[in-house]
Amino acid sequence: MTAPTRAGTPTVLDERAIRRRFVTVSCLFWLPAGLALASMVLLFTERGLSLGAVAAVFAAHSLTAAALELPTGGLSDVVGRRVVLACAGVLNVCALALIGLGTTPWTLAVGAALMGAGRALSSGPAEAWYVDTVHAHAGPEADLRTGLARGSAASAGAIALGTLLGGGLPWLLGVGPDLGSLLRSSTSGLVVPLSVPVLLGVAVEIVFVLYVLTALTEPPRPAATPRGVLRGVPHSVAAGLRLGAGDTLVRRILMTAGAAGTALAALELLTPGRAAALTGTPESGALLFAGLATAGFVCSALGSQLAPLVARLTGDGERAVLTGLATSTAGLLALAATVSAGGAPALTVALAGYGLVYLGLGAAGPSENDLLHRRVDTSGRATALSVQSLAAQLVGAAAGLVIGVLPAGPLPWLLGAAVLLAGTLLWARRTAPAERSAAVPAAAAE
């Protein structure tokens, strides 16, 4: 794999340079999401939206991302990783600008839908670029887990940093009342302290697009024609779905993604109410939850960094996945066991359990994806990642609906733990050597 220098002479990218570019892209993409995370709900309510309207805006994001997940993964496999990632960044620039400056519900809903489209476009191409480039440089047996772990850690770390900045900037701007009123008066109310992190995310997204276009060099591809795209994308999607249905290891990975989605849905739905009950008010509970979310992303980043070590200590990727998921299951069980308990010991166990969920999922993810990439080739790599992401979203959403109607207490936590335990037990049985043998082309013959 080569990159053009200023003199026009190609320079060979070594594995460290490839990892560095993948880590940078992962960080730049997820930092704006973290910046917007901490203030978005409060920004929407300040714009006059009710909680029901806020939920509808979020639904526009989720439904758009789910609807486009598979087609956009196929598009990346057909037209290339770089152009699809750049388009994701452009959509996010528009989305964050609308969210940061919009004052009407329909404007905010359009912004959320565009962000969902950008999320779908970004699901897979960067990781597919990394794997394709490493394979081109060092062959199909090259180590992937280290780079995947660092990319995953960079993503989680960027969200954690963005959440801290996104929560802290509005507070800093609001400390001086004159500064907050100056923002409102000088911009006719378009820019308020809560919108500043979102608009900062626009600047980061522009840097992301420029970096993708200049740093993510790809091997030459056949020129994509509209007819070729219209034929190639459905074919890639169908091939990815067939692979998930017909390959034992890939099917196990997809089912695990659904289990992990359920665990995260339980945390996201149940932790805010638990934090509010602990602190006594919704406002202080929201502040505590923001701190917990940041700590969770840090634990996820740490787990991802530890993934290669876990794989070495346990012997291989499958045992590493088992170990990571078992750790997360233990964390959810600790949260379930302490939901009705009080006192410092119970709180300590609950906090440790919360961290263990993210730590274990972070440690399992790179090994899962390493196994996945060894089962697919470049023609269907991004599609396979999109199928994995869609499994996590759909199963997590369905589980969230069930968890939301269960009575308060340990039962909702136990449901999440039971589903994650089922996903963990999938890895108790080793995949037969014949099933692990060689990469299966995702675009296999019809």
Beta-strand share of residues: under 5%
Q: What do we call the CATH homologous superfamily of the largest domain?
A: MFS general substrate transporter like domains
| Annotated CATH architecture of the largest domain | Up-down Bundle
Structural class: mainly alpha
Helix content: over 70%
Radius of gyration, CA atoms, in whole angstroms: 22 Å
Walk me through the structure.
- By secondary structure, the chain is an all-alpha fold.
- The chain has 2 domains: 1-224, Growth Hormone, Chain: A (Up-down Bundle); 235-431 and 438-446, Growth Hormone, Chain: A, CATH 1.20.1250.20.
- It is 79% helix and 1% strand.
- It has helices spanning 15-37, 40-46, 51-79, 81-101, 105-122, 125-138, 145-175, 177-186, 196-215, 226-246, 248-279, 282-314, 317-337, 344-373, 381-405, 410-425, and strands spanning 2-4, 10-12.
- It has a two-stranded antiparallel ribbon.
- Strand 1 (2-4) and strand 2 form a beta hairpin.
- The two termini are 31 Å apart.
- 52% of the residues are buried.
